Amino acid sequence: MNSFGRIFKVTIFGESHGESVGLNIDGCPAGLPLTVEDFLVDIERRKGGTQKGTTPRKEDDLPIFKSGVFNNKTTGAPLTILFENKNTRSGDYEKQRAVPRPGHADFVAHQKFGGNEDYRGGGHFSGRLTVALVAAGVIAKKLLGSATVTANILEIGGEKDLEKGLQNAIDHKDSIGGIVECRVNGLPAGLGEPFFDSAESLLSHAVFAIPAIRGIEFGTGFAAARMYGSEHNDAIEDMTGKTRTNHAGGIVGGITNGNEIVFRIAVKPTSSTPKDQQTLNWESGEIENFSVKGRHDLCIALRVPVVLEAVTAMVLADLLLLEQRIKRLI
Amino acid sequence: MNSFGRIFKVTIFGESHGESVGLNIDGCPAGLPLTVEDFLVDIERRKGGTQKGTTPRKEDDLPIFKSGVFNNKTTGAPLTILFENKNTRSGDYEKQRAVPRPGHADFVAHQKFGGNEDYRGGGHFSGRLTVALVAAGVIAKKLLGSATVTANILEIGGEKDLEKGLQNAIDHKDSIGGIVECRVNGLPAGLGEPFFDSAESLLSHAVFAIPAIRGIEFGTGFAAARMYGSEHNDAIEDMTGKTRTNHAGGIVGGITNGNEIVFRIAVKPTSSTPKDQQTLNWESGEIENFSVKGRHDLCIALRVPVVLEAVTAMVLADLLLLEQRIKRLI
Amino acid sequence: MNSFGRIFKVTIFGESHGESVGLNIDGCPAGLPLTVEDFLVDIERRKGGTQKGTTPRKEDDLPIFKSGVFNNKTTGAPLTILFENKNTRSGDYEKQRAVPRPGHADFVAHQKFGGNEDYRGGGHFSGRLTVALVAAGVIAKKLLGSATVTANILEIGGEKDLEKGLQNAIDHKDSIGGIVECRVNGLPAGLGEPFFDSAESLLSHAVFAIPAIRGIEFGTGFAAARMYGSEHNDAIEDMTGKTRTNHAGGIVGGITNGNEIVFRIAVKPTSSTPKDQQTLNWESGEIENFSVKGRHDLCIALRVPVVLEAVTAMVLADLLLLEQRIKRLI
Amino acid sequence: MNSFGRIFKVTIFGESHGESVGLNIDGCPAGLPLTVEDFLVDIERRKGGTQKGTTPRKEDDLPIFKSGVFNNKTTGAPLTILFENKNTRSGDYEKQRAVPRPGHADFVAHQKFGGNEDYRGGGHFSGRLTVALVAAGVIAKKLLGSATVTANILEIGGEKDLEKGLQNAIDHKDSIGGIVECRVNGLPAGLGEPFFDSAESLLSHAVFAIPAIRGIEFGTGFAAARMYGSEHNDAIEDMTGKTRTNHAGGIVGGITNGNEIVFRIAVKPTSSTPKDQQTLNWESGEIENFSVKGRHDLCIALRVPVVLEAVTAMVLADLLLLEQRIKRLI
């Protein structure tokens, strides 16, 4: 349930204020060069703290290899990586135990796990676990070879001028969301399957594993619902499958067609807003006023691009490993 | 790869112009009453042919139980259902073998399967296979008990007046897309998992198994990216988890929260448009003009609601079966 | 639950006295030549009827391709094959509904499926379903290329002279078991994984899917428990990994080592014996005398070799497809 | 590939001379009490060192909870446990890099992973990883409630007097194997599935994940192949399914029948024998004499019972969790 992938299978684990968060990858091919340094850029991109609107919480966030790496290469055995939680202040959360934070998983976690969940800072539901996704992405990107996965923020709070969108939120003393786009180039045609394991199915499955995502659209996306077929269809121009336009976003019939893969996702505003809110106190059964304590991002979308790249690379590396074997035996 | 579900596992198979299409369900509980009559309404809803804009092709489409049903009940053994293909006119397609239809899977199928694919009428990629999804949905809905899954068309070609949207397409001699919304009521809180098996992950995975879907959004969806956190957060109002608003669409932290589940999908315009188009002829290597032969829907979105309900019910029945066992042992 | 395989995934379905039994293979590579004729030899080997000790029930048992085959080749889409049940005499079983046959699954099926199971002739538990295993094996063997999988009966009722063993059973008016050995040649080293997906784990998993199997041993097997290490270890003789002896049966550390794979299985005596027996009548709650009606094999082991080859080939084809992709990407 | 289980899914990882070995359990129900103390007895049983014939290597082997445990209970989130490797002497192994040890996985690991494997002390193939299996077993046993899983050694080197068998090995300066039996009491009828997920399939799958196992037999096992049907069949005696005899070992048609589950396994002699042996040097291509360095068990079978109990409990806990949900929905 906390795993993803058929060949390159990633499991993530850990809690926001527990000892550590981490990941296990089962099925990573042997012989892939891998060092701590490989992770630094993407982990830094995820951290925030240097941008307006991101939380000042900092972790060293150096990956600790516990298994599967030997002499700076993957061994082919299961790979386990830990990130220690050093900078936790649980006291902030203890006192709010009976007050589920609006927009957070506190209420559903309590329902689902019968009160046994680690509730400190969101526990296992915390955005902290995205560091494990980013780490999986670092490895997955290596498996993609020369193919590139690049995500960028398109808008913040409805503004294409991102500084302006963020300043709006600061001025309103409120949190804000955004739109992030991902583009993949250099992959072969033929990845994905018709129906249940369509490339869109797998990509969206992985994307909605990122907290705070509310929508995804491929190629022209929702706008396609307002186009005529003759406008939307992409004319094939040559034997490589290159199309004149790319309304399909690089995926037709669930299968990559060799053109650029393009999709966009909607990130909701950070649930922890500086504004006062109301919520239930499940001990008293009363509605009460609620204000957020602790350190939080004004706009979680700012941290999303590197996480989006990571889950995208995970899906595509898995599909590439699967497709490798299809053509061989016969 | 053509299967979905952990407990209630559905496999679909078949080709548009082969002998039959069908499905296998492994993991359906024993003792569920099931007769041919149970399928008639939803299969009729999928058929089209009575509405403007849907194809005149008709199949009797009566389910044939090949295994897993005895004395009008499920036995607990794998359930296999066939739908025979009676009304096929392969000749329409044979002559276009070298000309991949724009917007269709012809090109990618050829790339992926090395020319071995059954290319007649889209073969395994055909929308014909959605009859198998609908059949799985009929059974899944039964497992949901009193919970309801209802999908409706919100707009056609950008028009909320659906007749008008369709008439636009007819007037333009072109195909058109639409937006479909799904609402689920009566399910308990607690379904889904954090991260990889979030309810949104599983629902979107299944939804993108439906041909022609280009986007999905939950609750407020893409609009959430333009809201402030204080607007978007849903205040919890009582001990059942009922929220004052439902911007989250009934899912928080990947888990259902007991409120109505709401999501919308974008359906692209039918790839087979009456308008002339251009595409590659992969034998000659030349671009040539192309016009669609055969029977086709002007607006495939008209057929989508019952299919959307089906895949939604499949996901939720599976989650319900999974959740059943969580609470029992301890 | 009724599926096996990670890439070459086989699902079997059907009941002894239902309409049909069959199988679905998801993940069979495209382009594999496949005709009805390919199945005839192995299906004939399974049938019995020509040998002393096997049941006179005969089915035409011609495979009917319902999906996934086009122009006499696999398409890469899910492959469905049916075998119709033509020669059923349900009346034999109806009257024994309340009397679970000793050694058969009648009692456990009733417990597990709450009385909803198809009880006629063992229903889904019937040995009839091994025809679906044999069919999967025909396809799997093709995927193994020049590698060979050969199973032979080593003894019947403790006798290496098989005719004599069988005659003993006939003379005693009783059923009898046997030992069957399987040998695989021509496979590369490197198939299987350490621990959970060891080659022995997967082979034994598949082997115990055959009804009536009570044990399996690899290489020297149980006798290894009585050897010294210096006797049991196989000295490696050359760079190909060829060993001087083959006590390991071709598998070390869960991985094939390139030598012949050898294992043996124990087949219990047919549960349906001509001898009178006692069992419970669950309506009366009384023990009563019981004698078998219908057509049955005296020695089911006679039919096992081709089924054993089939499940062995399934496992190894899957491992070969998996291993193909491991070496490629890097 | 390094995971097992459908609901209670266990992944093991680590290397003999790496930083640690460990496990991840995904799907453990929330609210199970769990402390370090719970592990001590079974880990002590596995250690050896106090018995004649077991290696003097000692580890503290205290489990370190890295995720999934909070306030001494499972949270329902993925559970990760590490065991640190403190007592490693890699130097023993470095010099033998080019000389694959007979009976060990050195050769196949090199073939499979292209020389990237961690070869020190067997790396990921080491028996050291069975500590992770034992830990999974501790948790699985808790899920079984009042049901008991007990494994015992039946013979050592062919001797039922175990001391004598071991002394034989010591006297011969050689290693030796053994037979271990496992018995399970207190489980309900109905666990397991017909065919691919038969209780025997799953148990044998898990059992062959233990290094050095060469065979498994259920109930009467191989001896069943020499019995008549009227002898082997177990007469059902009452409405609970209790049988007069238990030749079936508690499993019929792949399903538990409520009687005691009984099976035996063959453990080969420890590959690392004090006796001189021959093997290939793959650098020189020459056969050379070889003698074992380092610390090793004379009879690995002595450590197997607690590991066998562990994998057995894992399988049965998973089947119990699966079966829970079958009966509920309808």
UniProtKB/TrEMBL annotation, chains A, B, C, D:
Residues at which NADP(+) binds: R46, K52
Binding-site residues for FMN, renumbered to this chain: H124, F125, S126, G253, K268, P269, T270, S271, S272, R295
Listed pathway(s): Metabolic intermediate biosynthesis; chorismate biosynthesis; chorismate from D-erythrose 4-phosphate and phosphoenolpyruvate: step 7/7
One GO CC term on file: cytosol
Details of cofactor binding: Reduced FMN (FMNH(2)).
Superkingdom assignment: Bacteria
The EC number(s) this enzyme carries: 4.2.3.5
Recorded GO MF terms: chorismate synthase activity; FMN binding
Gene Ontology process terms (BP): amino acid biosynthetic process; aromatic amino acid family biosynthetic process; chorismate biosynthetic process
Essential cofactor(s): FMNH2
Catalytic activity: 5-O-(1-carboxyvinyl)-3-phosphoshikimate = chorismate + phosphate
Keywords, sorted A to Z: Amino-acid biosynthesis, Aromatic amino acid biosynthesis, FAD, Flavoprotein, FMN, Lyase, NADP
HAMAP family: Chorismate_synth (MF_00300)
Assembly information from the UniProt record: Homotetramer.
Function: This reaction introduces a second double bond into the aromatic ring system.
Family: Belongs to the chorismate synthase family.
Protein name: Chorismate synthase
